[in-house]
Amino acid sequence: MCGIGFAALRSPREALGGFILLPRLIDKVRLHAREELPPEYVGNLLKPGRTLDGWFLSFTETDGEGLKAAILAARTDEEVLAWIEENGRSRSAEEKKAWAAWLEKYRPDPDSLRRRKELYPELATRADLSFLNPLDLIDMDEGRIPVRQVLLRTGLAPRAPLPNREGQPKL
Q1: Do both 14 and 93 map to the same domain?
Q2: Do 82 and 112 sit in the same domain of this protein?
Q3: DSSP secondary-structure letter at 163?
Q4: Which of 12, 20, 49, 121 is 20 to 30 A from 164 via CA?
Q5: DSSP string computed for 20-37
């Protein structure tokens, strides 16, 4: 989407209190409050429904506006975690791990795939977005992990470098 290696946003895989996505949500809300969140991210910010933010809100059974207010009032990430634990649904470590595993295994349906291709046109020319989970997609787009690394891990890329016209490996 942005392809800028946005250093101010943590990876969606980073966790706080066992909740993946939470550190990233904290970053997004704080950046938005300072008007520093890239416009591509604003539309889905704490949006309920079929977005990562929405899935987080659903999993924790928290309200987007309440979470936003808690983030903006908190001095530390741990204070946000405490708010979620007090105001959301209590989740065990096993439930948090299972939810993270579900996100790792999630693949888009045809409508979501079409939207991905619109949001990530450059990545769509380099990888089959139907095989990527949303965490890989974000980390690739923001420059945290190379496309080839994800493709190798998912078994979608050749193991050896592709030869060029002269038969030499591309470097």
Answers
A1: yes
A2: no
A3: B
A4: 121
A5: ETHHHHHHHHHHHHTT-S
Residue 71 lies in a domain: yes
DSSP per-residue letters across 35-95: T-S-HHHHTTTT--SSSHHHHHHHHHT--HHHHHHHHHH-SSHHHHHHHHHHHS----HHH
Helix H or strand E encompassing 134:
helix 134-141
Interatomic CA distance for residues 39 and 125, integer angstroms? 23
152: its two tokens = 């190798």
- pTM, rounded to two decimals: 0.82
Which tokens is 74 given? 């908190």
| Overall average pLDDT of the 108-115 stretch | 91
DSSP label at residue 124: H
The set of residues, in sequence order, having a beta carbon less than 8 Å from that of 158 and lying 6+ positions away, is: none
C-alpha span between 28 and 10 (Å, rounded): 9
How far is it, in rounded angstroms, from Cα 37 to Cα 78?
22
